[in-house]
Write a structure and sequence with these properties.
The chain is mainly alpha-helical and 330 residues long. The chain is built from 13 helices and 5 strands.
Length: 330
């Protein structure tokens, strides 16, 4: 069975963008691939975190994975920092990476554009190398990526090939997994930007745990345009984003949606999208709230503990293979 690997940072409650762009697809493929999903807590500290909040968020992401339908019996679910080989391989790969290629990373340039060099953390600069270690450690066949992560996967492939050319065929070079469903979900307030839980405007994103009233209000406030026509075009990015969302949660085709709302105003369409999203998230919230009860804490702990043990069975021999290739004494 082919292998897939991915992870999400624990920087708060996950968004509708996380669900439609990643988690929904993970659920759909879990019977067809050997899947490994982790909580990327090591990546989250490129931004200073409150320790207590981070601690809680890590566990919340595990619960949200399961609430969205990721079956811990079928998938390996673990916390990145519980498998120390991630950080160790990251250091090894630092010595295969070049400053120039990391400086060219689009996300790094975007995030540091307004910062002085003295205030830019090395971890933010080095982020793609640790991501490469996360991936190469498990020899996955595919990595699900959105457009904003393609560059990171390419540097993973580059580092894997570079190491292999020097030390022998150690790493499998993964391909991008392109989902048949899902979309890149944009901010409701700025459709030129990806929906993000770090958005300064809370109306820009839908949390998986937002109430129905909050969801509908946010969609009613969504930025659109003056044309008042529900049409899927690049000239109407706000409406295009809402159509993408509606298509993902209802499984309707773009043409069906345009026909359904022909002659309807934006108000009618926004309300329909909000209600469809709220209905989809209702079951996720119900499951999450059940998992979040004190009596289920041991169950959640058992999932990430078993997941780390299983992940370690891949990671430990792979890192030993790397160490042997380098000439280290085991």
């Amino acid at each position: 069975m082919k292998k897939i690997l991915s992870g999400i940072q624990p920087s708060g409650i996950l968004t509708l963008g996380n669900y439609l762009g990643a988690l929904k697809n993970w659920v759909e493929i879990q019977n067809d691939y050997e899947c490994t999903y982790f909580v990327a807590d090591l990546h989250s500290i490129t931004v200073t975190q409150d320790p207590k909040t981070l601690h809680e968020n890590i566990k919340k992401v595990i619960m949200q994975y399961i609430a969205c339908g990721i079956d811990p019996e079928k998938n390996t679910i673990f916390i990145q920092s519980h498998v120390h080989e991630h950080a160790e391989l990251g250091w090894i790969l630092n010595n295969s990476a070049y400053m120039g290629e990391l400086q060219r990373m689009t996300q790094f340039k975007d995030k540091t554009a307004k910062q002085e060099n003295d205030s830019v953390k090395v971890g933010l600069f080095d982020y793609p190398v640790l991501m490469a270690a996360d991936i190469l450690l498990y020899d996955p066949d595919y990595v699900p990526v959105g457009e904003d992560q393609r560059q990171h996967l390419e540097i993973t492939r580059t580092l894997g090939r570079r190491f292999n050319s020097t030390y022998g065929e150690i790493f499998k070079i993964p391909d991008a997994y392109i989902s048949k469903s899902g979309a890149r979900i944009m901010s409701l307030q700025d459709p030129s930007k990806k929906m993000s839980k770090s958005d300064a405007n809370p109306n820009g994103f839908i949390s998986l745990l937002d109430s129905k009233d909050e969801i509908i209000k946010k969609f009613k406030r969504a930025v659109t345009d003056s044309e008042n026509v529900v049409k899927y075009t690049e000239n109407q990015p706000g409406i295009k984003n809402l159509i993408d969302i509606y298509a993902c949660v209802t499984d309707k085709k773009i043409e069906q949606i345009e026909a359904e709302f022909e002659g309807a105003g934006y108000g009618t369409f926004k309300t329909a999208v909000g209600e469809a999203v709220a209905d989809r998230l209702e079951q996720i919230q119900k499951k999450y709230n059940e998992l979040n009860k004190p009596e289920n804490e041991e169950f959640i702990q058992s999932i990430y503990t078993k997941g780390a043990e299983k992940a370690g069975k891949y990671a430990k021999p792979k890192l030993e293979q790397v160490y042997t290739a380098l000439g280290f004494v085991l």
